[in-house]
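Quick question, first post here. What does this chain look like in 3D?
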Amino acid sequence: MFEKELDRVRKQLKQQLDTRQPSIPLSAIMANENVHPAYRAYFRAEAEWWLHEERAIRSSNPRFDTANEALRALFPKLDELYIKSARFDHEELTAAIDAAVKTRLNFLVRPRTTLKWFVFRGEPTKPLYEILLRLNFLTDNTYLLDGIRQWAKSRPTESSANEILSVVEFERIVEKVDNDAILDLSQDEFVRLLDGIYAFFAEADPDLPPESVPTEAVIIFLDDKGAVPISQALERLLYREELRTLTRLKFFDVIDTVIAHIETTPPADTQLESVHDVVSEPESVPDQAPEPESMTAFEPELEPALEPELEPAQDVVSVEQVRGERFRSMLDTSTRDRVIRKVFNKDMDAFDAVVSDVLSSSQWKEAAGVLDRFFARQGVAPDSTAAMEFAQALHRSFV
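> Answer (accepted):
Ran it through. Tokens below.
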């Protein structure tokens, strides 16, 4: 997802950093004001990480007594010179550009998830000082980064530098910092959290309507925050009304609608005073390490990019076959079984029949009508998780 936008930003960065020399110094990158500050910070942090690795090699060399006071007195000056002399060859530059752009977009649209992946990189634990070093690669969502750093400062001084943190504990810290920050936000302040996303897409996709972003980017952002009612409302607009881009004004309307709906559901004395009231509390995190994740595999690819719908004039049989293959690729076994169990009451034949009816429609709007009528006949809540997963997989088969 968003591969077109990522490619455009990557190409722009390569043009800004174009050099005929075998390598480009970090100092030249930092002095290049055409390069966005977020990417300059990423390159600086990359050099600092190289230095961190060099220090580890230096201190672990048994041939030298690196605890010698005379040597230790020289190390700070040596480290400073290392940073000043840091440089990127063409291969390293290309890899760093690719990682910087993908990491930034990920951190903008799903900050909690990105922090876990980017800081721990599939490892179950990290020393606190390494965690803080990894944060230096990031510049957006400053309230979140500052909150984590503030938490680190509050640790006992004698143990903080070498304190080992598990990924599970780190996730809980990130969730608490994030939830505390948005606790009393007004609607206007909450929407302003998306300013970075709007700025990124304004630069990355000039073909977008003015002051708008892809609706899917905001859905991912809301899911990451746990704002499920709002994200589900946007998903309905995306998959049933083809709302592919979202302005701030439209987002305000969606939030107002969701809050108005929720206000009619709880007892009369329950008041919703802020957007946080529709942000769910974080689920308990299992006390186990996550499966290792590849750094290069973590990309904004939750769903395929939207493409024009197939015209009804094309061969209907071949189109339905293509859609069927897409649909089967969208649902893993566990999700499909859950849909059959909860939406179709374990009736596999009914599942196949509805899928066939929907996929044989000429356009998605017609297909959405077929699906809605099925939900109504069976008394299935279209907002339930299983129904939404089913509807999303069907819609993606059309695009």
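The two ends are 13 Å apart (CA to CA).
The chain has 20 helices and six strands.
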